[in-house]
Design goal:
InterPro entries: RAB3GAP2_C (IPR029257). It is built from 9 helices and no strands. By secondary structure, the protein is mostly helical.
């Protein structure tokens, strides 16, 4: 982009402006950033719900694993549309575990009104984990309908019929 400057600013000496520094930066490869976002979401879900026996890197194929350790400005080969069915199965099981844990947490927080979830996790205010699991399902190449159906089944199984109907 062309930056027009006034004549008064041309003769000014000092450190380089932040705009010029930003323009000199290499452009990032956005799909690689999305790939990192998926990993962060997976790790946060594992931590938040104390999911046992989940290996986060098992959710990614070899190309996906290698992409995590590259510079964000480099153009990397990311996983293509063809995935190993075993990896897809592991991904689906993980997302269903997240949804189940989110519903269980919702149910237990409604029973225990003494300490609210917002007091325990103030930075999660307004976070809807089942919706986030559906969003991540797109990136992980899992059918969103499977995750949504599991969510509704979990709501009904915990007696939250009014939410299940919605």
């Amino acid at each position: 982009p062309v930056l027009d400057t006034e004549d008064a600013w041309v003769s000014v000496e000092g450190p380089v402006s932040i705009v010029e520094l930003a323009l000199e930066q290499k452009r990032i490869h956005y799909p690689l950033v999305e790939h990192q976002f998926v990993l962060c979401t997976v790790l946060y879900a594992i931590m938040r719900f104390s999911l046992k026996s989940v290996k986060p890197l098992s959710l990614f194929d070899s190309k996906g694993k290698n992409a995590f350790f590259k510079d964000l400005t480099s153009i990397q080969l990311l996983p293509s549309g063809d995935m190993d069915p075993n990896v897809l199965s592991i991904r689906q099981q993980f997302l269903l575990k997240v949804v189940s844990a989110a519903v269980q947490t919702l149910c237990s927080s409604q029973k225990d009104k003494e300490v609210s979830d917002e007091e325990l996790f103030p930075f999660e205010k307004g976070k809807n984990w089942p919706t986030l699991a559906v969003d991540v399902a797109q990136y992980l190449q899992i059918s969103e309908d499977v995750v949504k159906r599991h969510y509704v089944c979990e709501l009904y199984s915990y007696g939250l019929d009014h939410l299940g109907e919605e």
